[in-house]
Amino acid sequence: MCLAIPGKIIEIDKNNEHATIEYGEGTKRKANITLVEAKTGDYVLVHAGFAIEILNEKEAQETLKLFREILSMEGN
Amino acid sequence: MFSLDDKKLADDIILKIKKSKVKLKFMHVCGTHQDTLVKNGLDVLFKKCGIEIGQGPGCPVCVTTPKEIEAMLLLAKKGKIVTTFGDMINVPSETDSLHNIRTEGCDVRTVYGIEDAIEIAEKNKDKEVIFMAVGFETTAPTTASVLLKNPPSNFSVFSCHRTIPEALKAIIEMGEIKIDGLIEPGHVSTIIGTKPYEFLSKEYHVPQVVAGFEPIDILMGVWMLVEQIKNKEALVKNEYSRVVHKEGNIKAQKVINEVFKQEDKKWRGFPVIPHSGLTLRSKFNEYDASKKYEDILEEIMYKEFLEPPGCRCGELLRGLVSPHDCPLFGQSCTPETPVGPCMVSIEGSCNIEYKYLQK
Fold this sequence. Notes:
The complex is a heterodimer of chains A (76) and B (359). Chain A is an alpha+beta fold. Chain A has one helix and five strands, in the order E-E-E-E-E-H. Chain A has one domain (5-74): Roll (SH3 type barrels). Chain A is 24% helix and 38% strand. By secondary structure, chain B is of the alpha/beta class. Chain B folds into two domains: 7-56 and 172-238, HypD, alpha/beta domain 1 (Rossmann fold), CATH 3.40.50.11750; 61-163 and 249-301, 3-Layer(aba) Sandwich (Rossmann fold). In chain B, 40% of the residues lie in helices and 16% in strands. Chain B has helices spanning 7-20, 31-39, 42-48, 60-63, 66-77, 114-123, 140-147, 164-174, 186-192, 198-204, 215-230, 250-259, 289-292, 294-301, 313-317, 341-344, 349-357; strands spanning 24-28, 51-55, 81-84, 108-110, 129-135, 155-161, 181-185, 208-211, 236-238, 260-266, 272-280. A five-stranded parallel beta sheet of chain B has the order 2-1-7-8-9. In chain B, helix 11 (215-230) links the parallel strand 8 (208-211) and strand 9. The model of chain B has no long low-confidence stretch (mean pLDDT 95). Classes of the chains: A alpha+beta (76), B alpha/beta (359). At the A-B interface, strand 4, strand 5 and helix 1 of A face helix 1, helix 6, helix 7, helix 9 and helix 11 of B.
């Protein structure tokens, strides 16, 4: 139930409430985007038909680097 | 998209955990964490490292009480259209399941989200449509958002929403199980942030980590707990910082607070947990199925409904037993013939255990 799937906003509806989200391999579905401040091109995390957070690609790419830092801080 | 495959890093983390030579018991409260743990054999790996990780009450369908299911059965039998998430309709209650009563002509429909239920209400103006709103803080803002948009008058919500920090407090206070650390659910935390967990570390000295759902997230999360224990710390660390921010999703929190108030709530397997339920505020009474159909629901108001005989879901949700401790597991209780909710829900430990380990 708390499963949330990442997808990319490819088009926002005129009412600014819903957007078409692409989940890869051509799967598209509408989601409500009123809980986030998202724009076209953003990656969002979608749960039960609602985008609940914007994914920060830069932060995501830095995750592994951050993990390495945490590990090395500890020393061996 | 954001692949977190790094075998070298995973090996490094495992080595560090092994070298720590610990004997610890952690709890998480998320079906998706359990899925990652079992699917990737991490539960076995951690056991070899001296760390046991169990799933507590982290499955919204599983913690929904028999009485809540009976309320929906009753309303469906009175001609209302009952809508809810897929797993919920298959949970057997004392009298029946929502799925089975369809054969009696009841209109029970599964939906992907609350907006699908609104669509059903709009297409069936001559019928009353109820959405059985199950879920933790991740799902509650979706219900709240819809209620703030003047839904059709033939639509109402039966709120079964519950909140995680209060349940964690209850489980610690009950003292039935030793918990050396808590792995907090990534998507609940996406909404609430990390602050609402802090009191658990301060008052009970329990180290915590918010973790994501890739195998490496769990490995890293466990390491961040081990590290705290080694340093005699009890803090809320955030492993899932690429998604979860300390303050959470403020917009979502605002809509939750506007629509819901926190009230005491019974969870399956637990006594009433103070402030752990999200009930609609009185200004939404016209959309509150528990108020709108009070006269019908009176029939079951003072009735107690029994758990299925022999089912150990209650103890499982309190982290006291594992699926294999239940004599029904894989015997009379399977995903095809579930006895308890933990075998029905894809987030239930029994369902996950059966899916990956049944040989």
